[in-house]
UniProtKB/TrEMBL annotation:
Keywords: ATP-binding, Nucleotide-binding, Transport. Gene3D superfamilies: P-loop containing nucleotide triphosphate hydrolases. The keyword Nucleotide-binding applies. It comes from Xylanimonas protaetiae. This is ABC transporter ATP-binding protein. Residues 5-235 form the ABC transporter domain.
Length: 235
């Protein structure tokens, strides 16, 4: 199976720090990949490079898109921003959703930024919120939702545009274990529906439920294991 996302020699250097050091990684369509490693090992840097949030200081990231392969590393800021808006979904601990907007507006805005008219965007957003168990909370300001409810809004927003590839950074980090498990259920449900997930986590319980676990140490991949039961166990 050809990869959805492919990194080669991916490196990120800051003055005095090699945050990522020559990572090769292929992410296959439809798999869930947990990225683990000690604090400072380069997990978030890898996620940001794979998702075109940061540009690498060396190496390549190639994303298979309906229009053909795209060299994400070579795109300028505006092109990467457009790629993220149109092709990728994000579930981060904070920073992407706006407290002063309602749950519905936070989801609908992802479509409106892609040119979908407000009425159609609101209708699709409402459908996603209902599918994620938030019916009745559409008009609640995000700041008045619980952490678990806010993550459901983030998961709705990540999928409403039709993104096939989802990136999550510690999506359960701020949640109690039961709420965290429910949020993970929803992310894995997206994978069961054919999406692909790359999730940075410190939580061994989260990693254990993913198809594959990539472990970083000092900016390098030191282990890459697939669950025995998952399809195409080749790594
Ligand atoms: N903007 C930056 N400027 C300088 N150094 C940075 C920057 N961002 C990250 N680093 C450094 O790069 C290394 C990797 O950081 P990164 O955040 O990717 O690690 P991480 O594994 O995600 O850590 P954590 O689990 O604590 O979130 C660390 O040494 C970090 O201090």
């Amino acid at each position: 199976m050809s990869p959805l996302l492919s990194a080669r020699g991916l490196s990120m250097a800051y003055p005095g720090v090699r945050a990522l050091d020559g990572v090769d990684l292929d992410v296959l369509p439809g798999e869930s990949v947990a990225v683990m490693g000690a604090s400072g090992s380069g997990k978030t840097t890898l996620l940001h490079l794979l998702a075109g949030i940061l540009r690498p200081t060396a190496g390549t990231v190639t994303l298979a898109t309906p229009a053909g392969p795209v060299g994400v590393h070579a795109l300028d800021d505006a092109e990467r921003s457009r790629l993220r808006r149109e092709q990728l979904g994000f579930v981060f601990q904070q920073g992407l959703l706006l407290d002063e907007l309602t749950a519905l507006e936070n989801v609908a805005v992802a479509l409106m930024l892609n040119g979908v008219p407000r009425a159609a965007a609101s209708e699709q957003a409402a459908r996603w919120l209902a599918a994620l168990g938030l019916a009745g909370l559409e008009d609640r300001r995000l700041g008045a939702l619980s952490g678990g409810q806010a993550q459901r809004v983030a998961i709705a927003r990540a999928q409403v545009t039709g993104a096939r590839l989802l990136f999550a950074d510690e999506p359960t980090g701020a949640l109690d274990s039961r709420t965290g498990a429910e949020v993970l259920d929803l992310l894995l449900a997206a994978v069961a529906q054919g999406r692909t997930l790359v999730v940075v986590t410190h939580d061994a319980g989260v990693a254990a439920r993913c198809d594959r676990v990539v472990t970083l140490s000092d900016g390098r991949v030191v282990a890459d294991t697939r669950r025995a039961a998952s399809a195409g166990a080749t790594a």
